[in-house]
Amino acid sequence: MTDLDTLIRTRIRQDIVSMHAYAIQESRGMVKLDAMENPHRLPVALQAELGRRLGALALNRYPDGRVNDLRVALADYAEMPSGFDIMLGNGSDELIALLALACDVPPSVANGFKPASILAPAPGFVMYAMSAQLQGLAFHGVPLTVDFELDLPAMLEAIRAHQPSITYLAYPNNPTANLWDDVAIESIVEAVGEVGGLVVMDEAYQPFSSRSYIDRVARHSHVLLMRTLSKFGLAGVRLGYMMGPKALIAEIDKVRPPYNISVLNYECALFALEHREVFATQAKDLRAQRAMLLQAFAQTPGVRAYPSDANMILLRILGEGDRAQTVFDGMKVRKVLVKNVSKMHPLLANCLRVTVGTEDENRQMLLALHQSL
Fold this sequence. Notes:
The protein is α/β, with parallel strands linked by helices and 373 residues long. Helices cover 41% and strands 16% of the residues.
């Protein structure tokens, strides 16, 4: 019988063996400000109403046509352009993985004998690179400037050189939380179109952003727009959605697993959209809390806060040595959990990412930060 070590060495891809799994920090008993979640729960009355609704579902049956009701509701909520269609994923992560699967075409005359690849500014969302690796695609990360802006000449050169199958533009970006220059974005979109690639505008943080690409997406037949209900307030439901020209969505949808959206997922999402004003009020509160935090950080010696259009703020901890780890550890001891992103990319040296929480959570976070600096 083959021993376990031999089995892993011979039957599991070695690039998978060398990878690290996506890390989720232990958060029990902590003020949890590490994952850009909406900290507000449903009001008690709505909790009871949703509970009754979920309890009446036929959990013994596969998901049915009700999922299409959700697609219609999301298209209305997002003001989806005419001629577009919408595809649902078990979180945006699944949509990112399915895109890599659908676009993994071999080199040919049609694509200039270029191998399929994925390109994105860096630092950015880790799942763009991970989806490429898992599908066996090359990933090209193009560094941002020192102020976390798009390096347009470098982006255009990378697009010309690699002719990527997919280019991701997070709007706003994670973990830097900023929106990029619209003129630079349009230049990149046009350049990708010239080499026959797709652009995916990732608007995961749209509820907190001052701008959206939705009013421009219909200008380009090669651009998809992706969003999630996680930041809307349903991180536990796991539901992402992607909009684009009907013919394009129809092809990508062929690789989607059947019944990927459970009856619980779609019923929770439909319920939330029926009460969208509750979530809009929550987002408004978080935008106000973000403004308060930015003002507080500006008055805190030893830190630099970067502009944010999301429900997170990137902080650079100033000083010598590994200050980010020291402050992260100090805050964790004080039961406040943030994200240490300082090792993710050289541009993020000594940076922490802080989720915008409730007024009380933010107060506790600021106290822990001041005591840890």
